[in-house]
Design goal:
This protein has 471 residues and is of the alpha+beta class. It is built from 18 helices and four strands. Helix 1 runs antiparallel to helix 3 and helix 14 packs across helix 15. The radius of gyration is 35 Å and the shape is elongated.
Length: 471
């Protein structure tokens, strides 16, 4: 009987131990399941935040970002959304849920680093290489038709010719002829742009508000260059002839951004799109002007500067044209013969400029032009400025470069600021197309990644989670 009592006690204790173990296991399983459920809920809640990405920007520009202002509710609303999501999905057993959002990566941070990453992802399958190779082929690898050394030699040549005239007392009989450079001096940048503008070119009236756009936060550093239309200084001519050199290396380095821009942004020769704030979007990336008209004008004069270098390089080697300008220079300088050599080269510059204007006339009218000039592809004489429609309207080269090709070249001069201007355009177009009921997107409030720290209580136990997420 006594042994039976011991056995009963032993079995009772063993049963209690087993019960306690089972209860502990159940508790541990419950806690583990609860923690796993909470972790999944946290991950799901952060995914729901990412699901609020701006649809317009993604559909049109393939960029993922979230506006954490949430229609004016401000950043705290993001934490409220996650907390409410967790309470709904986890139930009443989870208490004291607390959410802190940190580590936000804004699309404009670190010189638009997040934008650059997404652009690289968009063009990782060789599209950018194809665009680069196409332009390299058309340009035949030549981005510097004249160097500073070339121009210094030309200046020396003019000086030597003047010495020869002085030493040999060379004079030409005649009288002052009308100097064709006087006509060029009458034009402003806007006048040249208006002269070549197609009648059917559409300029939107939208005016950029510089106060709220992303590019307002950066100091403009875009290199301004053009051509001085006076053509009365060899020093200025020397500078203008080389100012647009050396773009191929920059284009190769930044081809992803340039290719991306060519794919998603409009230019003046594309079909008009009334759903866009600006019709000259690529031109805005290059110049950052307030209106289509301003950006068109600036781009025209920049392309003329690129073309001028090539046209001047060609005309210097065309013996017939050099002799023609030499004779004209004598008729202008007969009373001051020592000036004739310099005036000859300045007149050649003026003629090359007129040819460049004709080139851009042809480009903005939808044609392609030969990158390097030949006697057959040269279009103008030095008096052609008022008959561009006759000499350039039908001029097109099947394998030549287009207006858009030249825009991509211009983009290569300063891509860093263009990134901010890409965001400007996205913001303007979102607000133009979706800015109803007072909603206004500000890119400065948009993020691409964030971290969430979550704490909660489950039946006396505290769970802590950290979730890092982004696009």
């Amino acid at each position: 009987m006594k042994n039976k009592g011991y056995i009963t006690v032993f079995i009772t204790i063993l049963t209690g131990i087993i019960f306690i173990l089972v209860l502990a296991v159940i508790t541990m399983v419950d806690k583990g399941n609860a923690k796993a459920k909470a972790a999944i809920a946290v991950r799901s809640a952060t995914s729901d935040i990412k699901a609020n990405y701006d649809r317009y920007i993604f559909d049109n520009y393939h960029i993922l970002l979230v506006d954490i202002d949430f229609d004016g509710r401000h950043e705290g609303y993001m934490e409220e959304m996650i907390e409410n999501n967790l309470r709904t999905n986890l139930g009443n057993d989870y208490k004291d849920i607390n959410v802190v959002v940190s580590g936000k990566k804004y699309i404009t941070d670190n010189a638009c680093l997040e934008l650059k990453k997404q652009i690289r992802d968009n063009f990782k399958y060789g599209v950018s290489d194809e665009i680069l190779q196409s332009i390299k082929d058309k340009a035949m690898g030549n981005d510097s038709p004249l160097t500073m050394c070339d121009m210094e030699q030309l200046e020396k040549k003019a000086s030597d010719e003047s010495k020869e005239i002085e030493e040999n007392n060379i004079k030409e009989k005649g009288k002052d002829n009308e100097d064709p450079r006087k006509e060029l001096k009458k034009y402003t940048d806007s006048g040249i742009a208006a002269l070549i503008r197609p009648e059917d070119m559409i300029l939107h009236e939208y005016s950029v508000n510089y106060e709220d756009i992303p590019s307002a936060s950066v100091i403009s550093s875009i290199w301004e260059f053009g051509v001085d239309r006076n053509f009365d200084s060899m020093d200025q001519l020397k500078k203008d002839s080389v100012s647009a050199n050396g773009w191929l290396d920059n284009m190769s380095t930044n081809i992803e951004a340039i290719a991306y821009a060519s794919q998603v942004f409009h230019c003046m020769t594309d079909e008009n799109d009334d759903t866009k704030a600006l019709n000259a979007e690529l031109e805005y990336l290059i110049c950052g002007g307030e209106t289509d008209a301003e950006n068109y004008q600036k781009v025209v004069n920049k392309i003329i500067a690129i073309r001028f270098a090539f046209d001047y390089a060609y005309i210097l080697g065309d013996v017939q044209k050099v002799e023609e300008m030499s004779a004209l220079a004598w008729s202008i300088c007969w009373a001051a013969p020592l000036a004739q050599p310099a005036v000859k080269y300045l007149l050649l510059g003026a003629w090359a400029y007129i040819e460049s204007v004709a080139d851009v006339y042809s480009l903005v009218h939808g044609n392609k032009i030969a990158y390097l000039k030949t006697r057959d592809s040269w279009m103008t004489d030095i008096y052609s400025l008022h008959k561009l429609n006759e000499v350039a309207a039908g001029n097109s080269c099947e394998n030549g470069m287009s207006y858009k090709d030249y825009l991509l070249i211009l983009l290569s001069f300063d891509v860093d600021e263009a990134y901010y201007r890409m965001l400007d355009i996205m913001q303007m177009n979102v607000n133009l197309n979706e800015g109803n009921d007072g909603y206004k997107l500000l890119i400065r409030n948009c993020i691409t990644a964030f971290s969430v720290d979550v704490s909660m209580n489950y039946k006396g136990d505290t769970f802590n989670f950290k979730e890092d997420t982004g696009f």
